[in-house]
Amino acid sequence: MSNAVTLSGYTPAQIRTIKQTVAKDTNETEFDLFMEACRSYGLDPFRKQIHAVVYSKDRPDRRKMSIIVSRDGLRVLAQRCRDYRPASEPAQIVHDEALAGPTNPKGIVSATVRLWKQDNRGEWYPVIGEAYWDEFAPVMDEWAFDKEAGKRQPTGRKTLDQSGNWAKMPIVMLTKCAESQALRAGWPDQFGNIYSEEEMERLKTDTTASEALHELEQAEREARVGGAGILMVFDDTMKLEKVPMGMVHDRCADFLRTATPEEAHVFRVRNEHALRDFWVHDKGAALEIKKLIEGKEADFKPGQAA
Hints:
Structural class: alpha+beta
Strand content: 15-25%
Mean pLDDT: 84
Oligomer: single chain
Shape: flat
Largest sheet: 4 strands, antiparallel
Number of helices: 12
Number of domains: 3
């Protein structure tokens, strides 16, 4: 039944919604891990307490999923710890005007947060969390349009990422990082492998100029040929056909359903790299195509192909 509750506690329809929203870039294995983390931590993705972020999703050698817990999620977990008490005073912020500039508009050096933990005797003692601007602020390469090259290129300078809240609320963001540090220091069993979104912002900008340039050039190439897609061969003319990424599964499936075992085998050989690229993009859909090919090849006898 479509409204049956699964072992995760969500209906299939709810699981699909989670996959399409807070975990939209995950593959099957990563999504299973994320759902298990939701269950294990007792956090609700629908309340934005937890979500998944996949870094370098289009580069298999650098691909990495991180499970991110929001500040609300962290506090939910903290409240379950009977020996936890929140900060009783504002965070201590250290400034240095000499550091003020494009990468640090307010010249912030660090933020220190003091939480409280109760020991076995019932006494409360402080747990300190410190976060330094240089370690957490999402600083990135500055890009500008180069008239001679006719395109955007790195200028060689650094700047603070303007896309998020670090430029708007730098003190708040660094304070959140310090609070996360304190939670891990005082309650390692509960928070040892949990990271807040603010702590992970820097990973989004930790790419070299050459990597950023590679991604830009790839996007420009895709734009020139009509968007992202995969070049494939479907007949003996060896003509390359650019199939839009969203249509690769249907195009391949239509071809394979009417293909002979020999044609399916030749198709796999000719499109080995293209199918591998599709696997990286959409593992589930690529697996279905793989099964179709294997089903056809089961009746193929070596030596038949030209």
